[in-house]
Amino acid sequence: xxxLVIVAHGSHLNPDSSAPTYDHADTIRDVGAFDEVKTxxxxxxxxxxxxxxxxxxxxxxxxxMFISEGYFTEQVxxxxxxxxxxxxxxxxxxxLNASHATLTASDTDQWVHYCGPVGxxxxxxDVLVRRAESVTGDPDVGDxxxxxxxxxxxxxxxxxxxxxxxxxxRIREMDRFDEVQALYMDEEPEVxxxxxxxxxxxxxxxxxxxxxxxxxxEDIPEDMGLTDDYRTGYDVPAEVDGHxxxxxxxxxxxxxxxxxxxxRAAEAGADVGDAVERVRRRTRGTPAAGD
Length: 291
Known about the structure:
Elements: E1 2-8, H1 19-30, E2 36-41, H2 48-51, E3 59-64, H3 71-81, E4 83-84, E5 100-105, E6 111-115, H4 124-136, E7 145-151, H5 159-174, E8 179-184, E9 202-207, H6 214-224, E10 238-240, E11 243-247, H7 257-267, H8 275-282
Parallel strand pairs: 1-2, 1-3, 3-6, 7-8, 7-9, 9-11
Antiparallel strand pairs: 4-5, 5-6, 10-11
Pfam families: CbiX (PF01903)
Organism: Haloprofundus marisrubri
GO molecular function: lyase activity; metal ion binding
């Protein structure tokens, strides 16, 4: 038997924080890729410390629903799962290319394939583009549009910006959008000045965040000038300084994220059959703009 455990941060304050994790787990469970699919959280139940005890399988694939390599993926999760002998050098990563490491959970004796975070996987690029398609309602969106990939950014962890730059560059190389820019909340170039960085009249803004919360629902819309008060809502698209801003909300809420989780597990040796393709077929529909 093989199991998948998706681990995420969660929140005591925002009940929607865990919703994407549950949604993607349900999608993967429905396509039958694993004997068991479980979820665990740092700030919610079941806790990271206890989640492996909810799993009957001896072989477990653990995929972190985090954007970047850093404190949580390198220290908190391995510690809470009690991965015997874990060291970050097991990933042999420069901050972008963590794949997987196989260790034993010391208290359950399970064989654990600990995968890199979803946010640095190359398939996340496709999810960002799909998010642009979803918010505009146009599966061919690109010509005449700019695209901003937005991250939190912090000078305390250089890896925080690496994932943003990585995916922005990959989308730029597609030559699909007229302009592609990486922007940040806490670093330059800042998302507050989004219209300063684009000549395109239409700009899609996609936050590289796992869940919609304080930053994506309140800070970013107000910082960009979509609204003076997030509680009053805003239009999609919204007119700002002569541009139409198509604000997509957190990329982690996009249904195609389930594909990234599966690919992480498959690269670690999970036998997922044709589940990746079935997930892509299930999530191919593009809703109307603003949905």
